[in-house]
Amino acid sequence: MAMFTKAYAQETLEGDGVAVNRLFPTSKRMNFDPFVLWDHFDIAAGHGFPDHPHRGFEAITYMLAGGMQHQDNLGNDAFVSQGGAQVFCAGKGMVHSEMPAAKGQSIGIQLWINLPKHLKKISPSYQQVLSKNLPIISFEGGHCRTIVGENSPIELHTDITYQHVVLEQNKRYQIYINHGLNAILYVLSGDIVLGDETLSATESLLIKANEEQNLSIQAKTASEFMFCCGVPHHQPIHQHGPYVD
Q1: How far apart are CA 162 and CA 185, in angstroms?
Q2: Which residues pair with 95 in a beta bridge?
Q3: Which terminus, N or C, of the chain has the lesser number of Cβ atoms within 10 Å?
């Protein structure tokens, strides 16, 4: 049987005056192998994340609104807007900054994925993918954008699937999770129903698939949610601030 755990994001202050809804790491949950951070951010112009170091993981910043400017010590200087993604592999170490668009609110999800032990010392790298290059599949009552997975140009060192799904009221979306994977279902807006659970904005289900799962998700109201699943490394995770060793 699969294990389903309901989890709630907690408001946390980060960077230069940025409040994020953090699913983990928190005092209640440090990580969810292979995922080591999940932040739902909403940044006003003039705030952000000045230069800071990282090592030991990969990260995806997916923009839901506004935009984000990425600069790093590798020489990258790039801006991505709504529907696009910035991806970096911190590897043995890098320094970067992330600053929002000059006007309005910049909203998105930052997800960190642990690197397996044998890849902790690889060279850092950066990849940017614009909205037009992330595939969208439309279906009756909604659509799904694949951030990582089939037909996406994003490549990671850990096998994951990552999607942004929009559903009209009372419509359904089917998700298949292979045996042995860990998955996150996180609601951005609206209300969704999965089995006996109803999830609203900033609420999530953490799923350990001890056997293959076929999940039918229904939108109780017009809804948006994120779904990701990945192969756990089953290795100790030493997580401290910006480092995952």
Answers
A1: 10
A2: 53
A3: N
Tens-place pLDDT, residues 82-137? 999 999 999 999 999 999 999 999 999 999 999 999 999 999 999 999 999 999 99
Residue type at 79? F
CATH code of the domain containing 26:
2.60.120.10
Report residue 1's pLDDT band, with 50, 70 and 90 as the boundaries. Answer: low
| pTM greater than 0.90 | yes
Tokens standing for 175? Answer: 């998700």
Given a contact cutoff of 8 angstroms between Cβ atoms, the answer to whether 223 and 190 are in contact is yes
Structural domains counted in the chain: 1
Residue 75, Cβ neighbours under 10 Å: how many?
A: 7
Cα angle at 19 between 161 and 80, to 5 degrees? 50
H helices, E strands: number in the chain: 0, 24
Domain region containing 53: 3-244
What's the average model confidence in pLDDT over 189-217?
95
d(CA 96, CA 209) in angstroms, rounded, equals 35
